[in-house]
Amino acid sequence: MSRIDGRTADQLRPLTIDRGWSKHAEGSVLVAFGDTKVLCTASFTEGVPRWRRGSGKGWVTAEYSMLPRSTNTRGDRESVRGKIGGRTHEISRLIGRSLRSVVDTKALGENTVVLDCDVLQADGGTRTAAITGAYVALADAVAWGQERKLIKASAKPLSGSVAAVSVGIVKGVPLLDLCYEEDVVAETDMNVVCTGDGRFVEVQGTAEGEPFDRDELNALLDLAVGGCRDLEKGQREALGR
Amino acid sequence: MSRIDGRTADQLRPLTIDRGWSKHAEGSVLVAFGDTKVLCTASFTEGVPRWRRGSGKGWVTAEYSMLPRSTNTRGDRESVRGKIGGRTHEISRLIGRSLRSVVDTKALGENTVVLDCDVLQADGGTRTAAITGAYVALADAVAWGQERKLIKASAKPLSGSVAAVSVGIVKGVPLLDLCYEEDVVAETDMNVVCTGDGRFVEVQGTAEGEPFDRDELNALLDLAVGGCRDLEKGQREALGR
Amino acid sequence: MSRIDGRTADQLRPLTIDRGWSKHAEGSVLVAFGDTKVLCTASFTEGVPRWRRGSGKGWVTAEYSMLPRSTNTRGDRESVRGKIGGRTHEISRLIGRSLRSVVDTKALGENTVVLDCDVLQADGGTRTAAITGAYVALADAVAWGQERKLIKASAKPLSGSVAAVSVGIVKGVPLLDLCYEEDVVAETDMNVVCTGDGRFVEVQGTAEGEPFDRDELNALLDLAVGGCRDLEKGQREALGR
Amino acid sequence: MSRIDGRTADQLRPLTIDRGWSKHAEGSVLVAFGDTKVLCTASFTEGVPRWRRGSGKGWVTAEYSMLPRSTNTRGDRESVRGKIGGRTHEISRLIGRSLRSVVDTKALGENTVVLDCDVLQADGGTRTAAITGAYVALADAVAWGQERKLIKASAKPLSGSVAAVSVGIVKGVPLLDLCYEEDVVAETDMNVVCTGDGRFVEVQGTAEGEPFDRDELNALLDLAVGGCRDLEKGQREALGR
Amino acid sequence: MSRIDGRTADQLRPLTIDRGWSKHAEGSVLVAFGDTKVLCTASFTEGVPRWRRGSGKGWVTAEYSMLPRSTNTRGDRESVRGKIGGRTHEISRLIGRSLRSVVDTKALGENTVVLDCDVLQADGGTRTAAITGAYVALADAVAWGQERKLIKASAKPLSGSVAAVSVGIVKGVPLLDLCYEEDVVAETDMNVVCTGDGRFVEVQGTAEGEPFDRDELNALLDLAVGGCRDLEKGQREALGR
Amino acid sequence: MSRIDGRTADQLRPLTIDRGWSKHAEGSVLVAFGDTKVLCTASFTEGVPRWRRGSGKGWVTAEYSMLPRSTNTRGDRESVRGKIGGRTHEISRLIGRSLRSVVDTKALGENTVVLDCDVLQADGGTRTAAITGAYVALADAVAWGQERKLIKASAKPLSGSVAAVSVGIVKGVPLLDLCYEEDVVAETDMNVVCTGDGRFVEVQGTAEGEPFDRDELNALLDLAVGGCRDLEKGQREALGR
């Protein structure tokens, strides 16, 4: 079977990680997974939220949002509706949790990094692109903090790297990194977040149609682990390591 | 290793499913997973939301909430704060999705069932208790609709049953159905939703501390599948089947 | 005339006061006035709201809410609508005021008790059941505070007890403790809150249809005073005094 | 005992009812109870809210609000805070209920009258002034509708008149129509709404300090009935009857 | 051409500035531009918002609002809708900015004056009437602060006066101080805020229909400068200078 | 005097208009005024808002927003705060009004175009860049509608073009197209919107410090008219005319 855009089942879409996109932010990346484009900025500030003061630990959090016309049909702004929808909440929390899994908050010291992930154009996989790009922006913001001695030179605030990819079963076939047209017809949809050393930070699989069995789950996990390995390579290159 | 409440690693907490708790609702269950108590009511109404009218299909949705003092420390009411938090949104969506996985909306006809899952007392696993109880309330509401001929006698709106359980790794040991004290110290936390025939509807695993590897993931899935099988038995008994 | 449920005009519905319902709260009661069931929890915390700090006085407040399907037809959640309705506000304020009428805030010291009254099932008289149950939960929370020396042993934070009942005129006949079916057809509806010694804390009478005259008002007050006396006896028994 | 402003215990403050204050509204009154000034406008529109359409019946409702500096200390605007407080809700509902008690909605036909009661200056008794003034504005709006044949000439949409006054016990003495300085020190506070023929529409008595007994309640009711009789005379004069 | 109300093109509507309208506010004015009536109160408080503390400078801000039936058709309350509309925001900001242009915040010291401008009746030009009236209320509040030594006797917190007027082009003719009927048909609409010495604080011109050219702009500015001069005279008289 | 970035007083920053940026929108432009970058998308939909149905006329509106880290210091998201700020409201309204000034809504037919202007990076002049870019996106969306016959081939929905620029007085010198560093120290700040033929659609001048006189106003208008002429040329080139 050939995929809609000619990829093989285990192939990622073209990945670009454009570092230093923003003039203002301490770290910033315009990440693209094919036509999905997400602007990730990392804002470094000294100090932590009130509930964490005096703990000696830092804080990392994230906010995700889609521009109203990032999608095929215009969506209402959440600021205009006056409240954030469930999906937005869910993804913001996922991104924050994923990044914190590789952050040593003690080493970060009482500093805060906020990752803003704004989807400029959506074509499936926005949350996984956001996590993958936000990690790079975070790495830059941490380096910024160390250069300015806001973080100790000897500290290692990042214990590893983190990347994410979607996988799914389309017409019975497990596929890596679904684009929008694949995503809407997938029977099962899964987002997997892995560390650079290939372990799991988050596994979220959902049966959109038929429930899935253990073999299907295993096939999807295999694909995802491979995809995250490739993304990790892209992150490393972008960071010039 | 002995667990805090004396259970074995693969043992559920005492399960009670108290059907017909409410005088008003078309289906209602007070479900208990040990000290976790959730009131699940199913409200059956003719008609569907505007966006679904004329489709010939029904709709099933869910809302989850915690009473302010269901927890050890009182939490603010979301109605008073004027907005629903991310966690509440996330769980409401999970419950709705899980139930819809066994609903044949065509067979349901243009009817709506709303499941309200209100946590009266929380001791870990509130979302999994909610799904497990809500399925029974939903089954009763569907039966109510069939008795009143709002659903065709020959229709089978439920294609199967659904139950959910939490699993996690505590001090390196995979455990089934975590109580609150286990939950807060777990390194990895996973919620698994299964159909009565043992397939997966939803798998949500999160590393709270160290990332987890494939072997740990497999051990957790084994426990969860066994736990859901036991819960399904409890659901069947409660429904007198 | 015989009432719909066979009671005499001056008879309360069956009263149950189930103390210690909750594992977490410092005081808790599941109170039932017939089919009306309200879960009342009292949360004791050291300290007072900012505006009261340094006054040496404590604070007692209440929040009332109905579960969406506590009623015959499902109501929208106020958390989902994003605002609290007028009726909810009004009743929360009434409960708080009623309880404070028997609290000596100086004797309570700089401690706060929040009463949450959540209606699990509604059949008329939810606010009066809430007040009657909340008083017992409050008494338990105050005792809890005295055992832990957060309140002085010699202090008497409660100057008396408080209970409440509804009365109304149905087809020209004054009746005590209206159930829902009586309530919706009542020409006049009155809620009366009394202290244990038979004095008034709150009298709220409303003509739903025809205005009422002085004689009718007097007949209703007589019924209410008698009803509160009976409720106070139930409270005393529940508290084992 | 002489009152702070020299009145006798059963004496109203100077009453002025300035009809036709607004150029735009179908009925409008600037009512003053001493220094308490409330602008009451009645907006007549054809048609009724959706839930009442086709019933053949009209609708009358009210909204109460205080200008931020109508009081001694500036209060935040509810529009800025983004929600309406409990007190505002409570009073709006009271005004609406009081006016509807003298409206024959069938005779009104499918028309709506909204009463806006905005407190320009507050000195105690704002809700009772609002009810008293709003009745006159309502009468003018109904007359406006009849002149324009939106209401049948033969119909009598108003079955009577309605007025309201506060009473309270200050240092043990029952007083009529409390000004702010009396109100804040009152042990018991009561608002009474009467029809023109001296019957009760609403009785709301609250013990602010000590609970009150039956004799005190009776003394307050006597004062209130007398005060409403005087207010009704003022309303009649203002309407030129 | 004769205007709808008989004025010449460069003539203001009758101006009244009723000082000391409110019993409570430190400064207050009921200002009328013809049938447009705005109640402006100035609330003086010691201290400044948190972000300004320790700066030695004071703060002046404004809030504008319209009563629901100040207009020909009733508008919903912003408090009921739960948010402030764009127009309200815009005008509040304009009033605040205009007043601050003549305030020396250093001379004011760490004190705050809040100007509330509530439109009781609208007939065009509500924002310009609000600015013109608010200046007088502000002057009174500043004088109040100086009498009470909250502002140094030698300080001059007001560097000048400020007034505002609308101008517009109606059927090709530039007109001063548009009433509502003129405003709705104007091709160009402009609000101009001037200091007492004839300089500009704010110029806001908008083409409602055809764009306007430089000559038309100049004609409008000429009219506005003349109108502000007349208003400034009215302010001075009202202040008894 | 040489400007901070070496420009002459009457020189625009480098202008780029990147058409067709978005895969989804009917018209889209990434516009840059120096370091200020705004993504403008035009969403074309058949039909109009309810209040305009049956009029035969179309509707054009705009929404402006800043990404949280488009600025030097991160700002809170308005969706998280739950309400839109005054500045955002004001600018959204300005953009919509400016575009409508060149739209013949009758020729547009009952179609709606929504312009979303999201600031990706801010360095002064975001609103003027938004208007200038949005016009080009609008032109593309209108062309899209004509190609698909949703607008009549013979219709001319755009009566002209529109562009905008900021001007201001910095240290006494009138300057064109202020960057952020100039903007914050400007004594007077003015935004001017012109049509392609050099007439005014909107003139908004504000004294940030000292009031400005007629000569200064004239100098600023001269600069703005010249700047808009240059921008119009850039728009024409981008559209390939």
TrEMBL record, chains A, B, C, D, E, F:
Domain of life from the UniProt record: Bacteria
SUPFAM superfamilies: Ribonuclease PH domain 2-like (SSF55666), Ribosomal protein S5 domain 2-like (SSF54211)
Domain Exoribonuclease phosphorolytic span(s) in chain numbering: 11-141, 161-225
Record keywords, A-Z: Nucleotidyltransferase, RNA-binding, rRNA processing, Transferase, tRNA processing, tRNA-binding
GO MF: 3'-5'-RNA exonuclease activity; tRNA binding; tRNA nucleotidyltransferase activity
Catalytic activity: tRNA(n+1) + phosphate = tRNA(n) + a ribonucleoside 5'-diphosphate
GO terms for biological process, alphabetical: rRNA 3'-end processing; rRNA catabolic process; tRNA processing
Positions of phosphate binding: 87, 125-127
EC number: 2.7.7.56
Enzyme class: transferase
Coiled-coil stretches noted in the UniProt entry, renumbered to this chain: none
Complexes and interactors: Homohexameric ring arranged as a trimer of dimers.
Function recorded in the entry: Phosphorolytic 3'-5' exoribonuclease that plays an important role in tRNA 3'-end maturation. Removes nucleotide residues following the 3'-CCA terminus of tRNAs; can also add nucleotides to the ends of RNA molecules by using nucleoside diphosphates as substrates, but this may not be physiologically important. Probably plays a role in initiation of 16S rRNA degradation (leading to ribosome degradation) during starvation.
Family of this protein: Belongs to the RNase PH family.
Official protein name in the record: Ribonuclease PH
Name of the gene this protein is made from: rph
